[in-house]
């Protein structure tokens, strides 16, 4: 296991690590499940921890979203409950956006699948959406590894091309059309994923630790893939910036926000002449969890396909809201990759 080294300006954090077993992880995950309303008749969305009067029984949908500069600004990222940002070939990143509490009219631009996106989507029992696939991902999809709909088969129907952009940066998935096709294919759309663990609002106010008001992540020497999160104390969320520009939804112009930022290290290995990657999302490692303007040094573990924070062997709760999980190469886990500044 390599150590993710992160420079924190004005303060240093102490490395903490822990051990845990499969039984403890499984039991901890079950504790987060929300299946009954509270005394006031509220349910809880399983992937955001936010209250709702309607039983949140819809299935999660995981969509691979293009992050090439020609694919920006994006559509629908603001409605995602959870987003993974993961490297692909060419020193670029791509998103896996998971929707459960909200379903935008359309999402995109949608891009091709990789095997590790399928594994991550399976962790939430998601319906998997992509447009295209790598050879390994194609084999997984054709073997029935996950319920899925792909733009290769539905280009021009569920997936609409935007004429103002060039392929492959112009494919948008229409949620209503996708849902109808999923029903026709006999997919279950009414089973919600198990809940993540969330703090109570009072616990959020008690968070303490080193300040993290500005988070900078350098995925690449290319400025276009340098990510920054800026904490807004009024909104009590982080605004996301990429390549020096504030990220806004293409349709609504709403800012892309994050309530939980979870930065993890993972082994990356090039596996073919195209530069495609094998990413170790099973072995665990060091990580940082940033919430409410505070950073904690934690570990991560793969719990039934989900990337979950732990500290001293105990699961760490998320705060209610959405979550961005940033997967960084362990070999580049130096202070040149991630920096916290006041």
TrEMBL record:
* SUPFAM superfamilies named in the record: YerB-like
**Residue ranges that the Swiss-Prot or TrEMBL entry lists as coiled coil:** none
> Per its UniProt record, what InterPro entries does this chain match?
DUF3048_C, DUF3048_N, YerB-like_sf
* DUF3048 domain boundaries: 47-187, 215-325
Entry-linked Pfam families: DUF3048, DUF3048_C
In Swiss-Prot or TrEMBL terms, this protein is called DUF3048 domain-containing protein
User: From which source organism is this entry?
Assistant: Bacillus kandeliae
């Amino acid at each position: 296991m390599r150590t993710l080294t992160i420079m924190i300006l004005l303060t240093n954090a102490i490395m903490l690590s822990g051990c845990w077993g499969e039984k403890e992880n499984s039991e901890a995950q079950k504790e987060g499940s929300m299946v009954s309303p509270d005394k006031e008749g509220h349910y809880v969305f399983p992937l955001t921890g936010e209250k709702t009067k309607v039983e949140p029984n819809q299935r999660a949908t995981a969509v691979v979203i293009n992050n090439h500069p020609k694919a920006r600004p994006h559509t629908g990222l603001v409605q995602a409950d959870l987003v993974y940002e993961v490297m692909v070939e060419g020193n670029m990143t791509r998103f896996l956006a998971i929707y459960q509490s909200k379903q935008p009219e359309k999402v995109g631009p949608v891009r091709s699948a990789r095997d590790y996106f399928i594994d991550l989507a399976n962790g939430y029992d998601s319906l998997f959406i992509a447009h295209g696939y790598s050879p390994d991902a194609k084999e997984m999809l054709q073997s029935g590894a996950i319920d899925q709909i792909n733009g290769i088969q539905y280009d021009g129907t569920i997936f609409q091309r935007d004429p103002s952009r060039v392929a492959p940066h112009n494919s948008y998935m229409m949620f209503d059309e996708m849902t109808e096709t999923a029903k026709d294919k006999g997919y279950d759309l009414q089973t919600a994923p198990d809940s993540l663990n969330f703090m109570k609002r009072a616990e959020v106010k008690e968070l303490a630790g080193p300040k993290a008001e500005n988070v900078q992540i350098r995925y690449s020497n290319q400025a276009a893939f340098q990510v920054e999160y800026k904490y807004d104390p009024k909104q009590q969320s982080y605004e996301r910036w990429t390549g020096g520009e504030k990220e806004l939804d293409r349709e609504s112009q709403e800012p892309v926000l994050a309530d939980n930022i979870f930065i993890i290290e993972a082994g990356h290995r090039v596996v073919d002449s195209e530069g495609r990657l094998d990413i170790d999302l099973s072995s665990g490692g060091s990580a940082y969890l940033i919430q409410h303007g505070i950073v904690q040094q934690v570990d991560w573990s793969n719990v039934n396909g989900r990337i979950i924070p732990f500290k001293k062997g105990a699961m760490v709760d998320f705060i209610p809201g959405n979550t961005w999980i940033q997967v960084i190469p362990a070999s580049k886990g130096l202070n040149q990759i991630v920096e916290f500044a006041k």
